[in-house]
Design goal:
By secondary structure, this protein is α/β, with parallel strands linked by helices. 49% of the residues lie in helices and 11% in strands. The protein has 23 helices and 16 strands. The strands form four sheets. The chain has a six-stranded parallel beta sheet with strand order 4-3-2-5-6-7. Helix 1 crosses helix 11, helix 4 packs antiparallel against helix 5 and helix 11 packs across helix 21. The longest helix is centred in the middle third of the chain and has 30 residues. 53% of the residues are buried.
């Protein structure tokens, strides 16, 4: 239905390239900017004719890195052109699958800013593309199938040239980036293309976390390669409905990936449960772990065990304290700091090394750059990068730094760990409380945090809900830091604030909603449940696509509209899914209470 509707509508409501490109090129002065990136919420929206960062990324990404990232995605599309066809003939390569996840993850917002690392990614991508080509041709011979002539596809035929500088490679990337795509396809088809790309990036990031813990699904790899192969062939003739369908498929497979990650966390670290987490330091040497990766935290804790080094979580690592397999380590001392965008202040004040396991990292201050360590796909030029699984450099840095001189306030705590196991354990009680009118509505206020002032909406909303006696807020992602201290107390023993976990735990929120819908014999849209989603980067895009795949309607999203979503795209999403932009917190709450 969606595909048919969108295809029919596109002729009337989407601006086709034949009529729009000349106007678009004129608005852009027909001269390519140094870069064009609009994949995250903090992008520059000051020019409605050319939304996006064009001089330097607001995230800190240079034009050089932006071009290298665009070229890497272009090369990965080419790899998938071969890998997809090889898989159709029963041939696959785990090395190609794993690299696709890892390298796509590296292009997420605030993950990797190191041009030399991207040069290495490009070299490896080219080598694996040749492996994928050979795999496809071998499979054709074995199946007595004539290989397709694929060299005419620019992504499939592109080759890495080791004699070229990063600057030269970046210039190539600009030829395959958003600006060039807009000139070819127009803003609407480009926006849909990028919606798919960004959804795939978010999916790949979640899949990489699960893959590191030994969980994967061949159907997911098959989808990623098929999707990238399709995107490599996007042209002015591509129906808009095909791209929307692909985006919703991305949501479908992201649901599977987040389920795998949920299973991986529980298999490795046990079932999380509610726990009070200290938010003040203890006297002594210390290490701070930021990002999302539980395995990295576990490995560090294993290596500091038996020492007097205290390990603290930062940002989205806070839910780690709720896992039995992590909280068993005596060195896991508490949580320090708040959300990622405050790291310059948090890290500067922290008297020990910092380990960045994933996004989000931003340009480090000189005062702590020497004690910042990056892991896996993360990177910053000049920062120390940990290879393998040896945290010895971190431990030596911790012993060299001063550590905390005294204990902080032990009463500063927060309760976390209300994953789907804990909440569904209260299901009978909660259902009866809804029937009795004690709980009037649930509010899922989740997603990413960021620096934009408009994000105060989510704090204001939580404060308005707190004024009522019948509201329960579920939160996940670093958006929790906007609301976690605004909802004290409980309703007959059920806390008014329930922390579901990281953005990596989004499957848990879906499972909770689905179980409640089943109990009330309705669908998710029939529940007394409102979704207020704060988005920032491509993981959030993947989660949003999952919710749309599940046909969740009436989601409020903010703080701003994504730069890649054109007015025509928004009109379709509003019509089909009743997608709303956040407005005034008090007014939105009043509408939510009416089920609107």
């Amino acid at each position: 239905m969606l595909r048919t509707l969108f295809t029919k509508t596109s002729a009337a409501s989407l601006v086709r390239p034949s009529t729009s490109v000349r106007a678009y090129a004129a608005a852009a002065s027909a001269e390519a900017p140094a870069m064009l990136c609009y994949q995250c919420q903090q992008t520059d929206l000051s020019n409605p004719e050319l939304p996006g960062c064009t001089v330097i990324g607001n995230c800190g990404k240079t034009p050089e890195v932006a071009g290298l990232q665009d070229l890497l995605i272009h090369s990965l599309k080419g790899t998938s052109v071969y890998a997809h066809r090889a898989r159709q003939l029963g041939a696959s390569d785990p090395a190609i699958d794993a690299f696709t996840l890892r390298s796509m993850f590296s292009t997420l917002t605030n993950v990797n800013f190191d041009p030399d690392r991207f040069n290495s990614f490009l070299k490896e991508a080219d080598q694996l593309k040749q492996s994928a080509k050979a795999l496809y041709e071998k499979a054709c011979r074995e199946k007595n199938v004539t290989p397709e002539a694929l060299e005419s596809n620019p992504a499939a035929s592109w080759r890495f040239d080791a004699t070229k500088s990063n600057e030269e490679l970046s210039a190539e990337g600009l030829d395959h980036g958003v600006f060039s795509r807009k000139l070819e396809l127009g803003p609407d088809l480009t926006g849909l293309h990028e919606l798919c790309v960004y959804g795939l990036k978010g999916l790949a990031a979640y899949a990489e976390h699960a893959h590191k813990l030994g969980k994967s699904d061949d159907e997911v790899f098959a989808f990623i390669h098929r999707a990238l192969s399709d995107l490599a062939s996007t042209s002015v003739a591509t129906p808009a409905g095909d791209l929307l369908t692909l985006a919703l498929e991305c949501g479908k497979y992201n649901l599977r990936v987040t389920q795998l990650l949920d299973e991986a966390h529980r298999d490795k670290f046990g079932i999380p449960g509610p726990i009070s987490v200290r938010r003040s330091p203890l006297k002594g040497k210390c290490v701070l772990v930021t990002g999302h990766d539980m395995k990295d935290l576990h490995d560090l804790l294993s290596q500091v065990e038996g020492t007097d080094i205290n390990v603290y979580t930062h940002g989205e690592m806070m839910p780690a304290h709720s896992y039995p397999g992590l909280k068993k380590f005596k060195n896991l001392a508490g949580h320090y700091g708040s959300a990622w965008q405050n790291q310059k202040t948090d890290f500067a004040r922290f008297p020990g090394p910092i380990v960045a396991t994933s996004n989000c990292i931003i340009e480090p201050r000189k005062s702590y750059k020497h004690r910042l360590f990056t892991r896996d796909v993360t990177g910053w030029p000049g920062a120390q990068h940990l290879t393998g699984n040896d945290y010895g450099p971190v431990i030596r840095s911790a012993n060299a730094e001063s550590g905390f001189a005294e204990d902080g306030d032990a009463s500063d705590t927060i309760t976390v760990g209300f994953g789907h196991d804990a909440i569904l354990g209260l299901a009978d009680t909660v259902i009866q409380m809804v029937k009795d009118g004690d709980i009037g509505r649930f509010y899922l206020i989740g997603g990413c945090d960021g620096a934009h002032g408009e994000r105060s909406y989510f704090t204001d909303l939580a404060r308005e809900i707190a004024k009522r006696d019948d509201g329960v807020v579920l939160s996940l992602g670093c958006g929790k830091f906007r609301v976690m201290d605004e909802l004290p107390g409980d309703i007959k023993g059920v806390p008014k604030y329930l922390d579901v976990g990281q953005c990596n735990d989004s499957y848990g929120a879906v499972k909770i909603a689905s179980a409640l819908a089943e109990a009330f014999k309705t669908d998710v849209n029939g529940l007394p449940l409102s979704f207020m989603v704060s988005w920032f980067e491509q993981k959030a895009v993947a989660v949003l696509l999952t919710l749309l795949h599940l046909n969740v309607k009436g989601i409020r999203i903010g703080p701003t509209l994504p730069g890649f979503v054109t007015p025509n795209m928004l009109a379709i999403l509003q019509k089909e899914f009743d997608l709303k932009l956040i407005g005034d917190a008090k007014e939105d709450l009043a509408m939510a209470l009416q089920g609107k």
